[in-house]
Write a structure and sequence with these properties.
By secondary structure, the chain is an alpha+beta fold. It has helices spanning about 5-15, 75-80, and strands at about 25-30, 40-55, 55-70, 85-95, 100-105.
Length: about 110
């Protein structure tokens, strides 16, 4: 299983939803045509951090931007995502009466 799918399964576990199908609320780089159900987590690849040694790539880590979207400004999902290893809080904003909490996670 790819590391992205492992991350997807972890995010679904946090949400308490199935990891596929119509009831899944973790979305990987969703197109604008997708009708989301809330609370939801939207995530996408942000960067690939590379470490070099001996004229080549020694180590690479993928950085994902993970956004928790919920009507509740004190959503418990935010704390669960923040507790993931190598996860850092980036910012909070509101849009369309929904709270967005953005994290950066290396996975």
């Amino acid at each position: 299983m790819s590391r992205r799918l492992k991350l997807h399964n972890i995010l679904c576990e946090i949400l308490g939803c199935p990891n596929e199908g119509l009831d899944c609320r973790a979305y990987f780089q969703p197109p604008t045509s997708v009708k989301m159900k809330y609370p939801a987590i939207v995530y996408g690849l942000e960067d690939i951090d590379k470490k070099y040694a001996n004229d080549g790539v020694y180590l690479s880590q993928r950085k994902y931007l993970v956004t928790v979207i919920d009507k509740d400004p004190d959503s418990p999902i935010v704390g669960k995502v923040a507790a993931l290893p190598l996860c850092g809080y980036n910012r909070h904003y509101e849009k369309d009466n929904l709270n967005h909490d953005v994290f950066e996670i290396f996975f």
